[in-house]
Structure formats: C-alpha cells, structure tokens
Write a structure and sequence with these properties.
Layout: E1 5-13, E2 16-21, E3 24-30, H1 32-42, E4 47-51, H2 63-70, E5 77-80, H3 86-95, E6 99-102, H4 104-108, H5 111-120, E7 125-133, E8 142-146, E9 154-159, H6 160-170, E10 174-179, H7 191-200, E11 205-208, H8 214-222, E12 228-231, H9 233-236, H10 242-251
Parallel strand pairs: 1-4, 1-12, 4-5, 5-6, 6-7, 7-10, 10-11, 11-12
Antiparallel strand pairs: 1-2, 2-3, 7-8, 8-9
Length: 264
Amino acid sequence: MLTKRIIPCLDVDAGRVVKGVRFLGHRDAGDPVALAAQYDRDGADELVFYDITASAQDRGIMLEVVARTADQLFIPLTVGGGLRSVEDMRRMLKAGADKVSINTAAVQDPDLIRRGAEAFGNQCIVLGMDVARLPGPGAPRWGIRTHTGAGGGRATALDAVEWAARAVELGAGEIVVNSMDADGTQGGYDLALLRAISRAVSVPVIASGGAGTLEHLYEAVAVGEADAVLAASIFHFGTYTIGQAKEYLAQRGVAIRRLAAAAI
C-alpha cells in the first residue's frame, strides 16, 4: 500500500513565512529556516517552499534563503516561485532543492516542463496549479490563474483538469493542486477538484488550500483521492502538530510514513 505524505508549506514573502486567506491579508508566521528545522524534527515527509511574490513582482527567487532552509532539512524540499528557465531550476537544485515547482512560467511556456524533465528527470518537476471555480450551471469546472502571489492573479483560458493532463504528458512528475477559493479559509479542501484531477493523471497529486482540521486531511486522501496533503495555517500557528496529524490518519486506516519518528 502506498503511503500518504504530510507536507507543510512555507509561503515566503520578503524572507518571512506568511499566511493569508485567498492570497490576501498575510500575517507573519515566522522564519523559514527555523520552521523548516522544526518540521523536519517533527516528522514531516517533505517541505514545500514558495516565494509567493516572485512571479507577481517579476523577479527571481531568493536563492540565499532557499539555501539556508535546505541546510536544515533531511527530507525532500520542493521550491517554487519565479522560476522561468532550466537554468533557474538548476540554480535551485544546486542550492539544495530536491524538486522545483513551476506555475506561471509553465502556463506561459508549457515546453518548459518538457525541457526541465529532460534535464533533471520527471521526478524533479512539479506543476503548481492555482485553481478557481468557474461560474455557471452544471458540473463544476475550474480555471487556472497565474501571478497569484499578490492576490487574485490573472485568469487564463486553461481548464484545470485538461491542463493537469497535458502537463503530465509534457513531463511533470507531480502536481500540487491549490484551490484559490479555499486557500487559507480552513474550511476544507475542494474535494471534487482533487478527485477530478487525481483521476485524470497518472502522477501523484498533492492537495493544497483549505486545511483546517485533521478530518480535512483525511477527506483529501479518502474522498479527494490525493496522494499527499499540503497544509500551512494548521501547522504554523500551532493548531496541530505533524505527529497529531499522522496519528489521526493512521487511526483512520491511512498508510503514512515515519509515524514512530513524529512528535505526537
């Protein structure tokens, strides 16, 4: 049985971890280096580091902060934000990242996914998706948005499920599905969105956006069919520990990693 992963997310702005609601109203959550070290000790399976304003501000990612964060970790680190080329990816991997996440740049240049996968392997290329529900009757549909670090971002013509499938064909080895409607609300993941994308692709899908309770984590894997759960607020502000999340999922019959090592 494949294990499910618990992944804290560090949304970094100006060198500090922040968290808002639907990408707005950010409040400070701490130093990324200190938080990374704590989550590693607590038994997190992986860590995601997003420089959330890099694309919106049209600048590169903060390499030095990434390098200091990576130095604290013995678990895989995914880094995203402002990566626009294979050379940008190379710099991140040399700085200590195990995977690179691309979102806006992939929409603008889908072939960047293929070039990255050819250079570093599919397992290194993560597609980040900021997804918003589209209005209208009938079955739910979702669209892709870019440049979201400064707020609502920019709408695109891409259908989220179709884009996920195309990205995998191009070489993406993993997908982070972030619901902009649920982000930071702590009201639960968009389970219909997760399930639709999980069933459309053959690579691991990571649920993002909306975790507020341990039950939400369970729903993401049991109902949304996600392979991993990404969360920020519930961990950053002390609502739950990684160990408590792992214990809860294990009690619900979910296969998880490193339960014995987690601080419960």
